[in-house]
Write a structure and sequence with these properties.
This protein is α/β, with parallel strands linked by helices. The protein is built from eight helices and seven strands; from the N terminus they run βαβαβαβαβαβαααβ. Helix content is 45%, strand content 15%. β4, α4 and β5 form a beta-alpha-beta unit. The longest helix has 26 residues.
Amino acid sequence: MDMEFTGKVAVVTGSSGIGLGAALKFARKGARVFLCGVDDKHNAEAERQAEGLNLSVHKVDVADEDQIAAWMKEIGGSAGKIDILVNSAAIQTYGNIETTDVVHWDRVMGINLRSCYLTSHFAYPLMKPQGAGAIIHVASVQGFANQNNVLAYATTKGAIHAMTRAMAVDCATDGIRVNSVSPGSIRTPLLEFSAQEIAGAGNSIEDTIAEFGKAHPIGRVGTIEETSELIAFLASDRASFCAGADYRIDGALMADVRV
């Protein structure tokens, strides 16, 4: 799918995995991209992969109001506008209602959900004057149905679905389209972390990821590139009538009823 973003300014959170993939996609298609992450190692790798592209990497804690406000002010002073916002920053944690303590809960809410509010809130004044724009939140199939022991993570992803609908209705009059994407298992550092956490005795990460893939009727996990294509489409003018919806990219995972 040939999509061009020349002259567009894209802001992306999450400097590894899907966030990095989306940022690179936009930059390779002509956009000026601002990418943020809090992990120094991931930021350095993102800078390496972005060499030669109009993509800058910034160290920002997406759950921190002051840091997000300052970052958006910096982007406004440098680029003067924002056309595309992709919220991909997230952490995967484990725990149920008994084992999830308040510190754990607040941390997941801050990174996975509060960040979507903060970036959208502070980016909006830089999007609204154009009378057009696109915001894409990265949710998850776990916002619809989930594994056990993922209380905080699943809660944030379900909330992102509701947030997407509410924002889409409010923002439509300003010409700004808001959608979300819900990946199944996508081969990212986050998925590798999950595989390491739940790998059974004698199983490698690769064995566990292969098992994840078998749960999807397509028979494999997805790729960052595949997910980036969907995000880029939703950000493009080709998706001009797409707003207020969630788009699953899950290899038919949620369509499969096993009894």
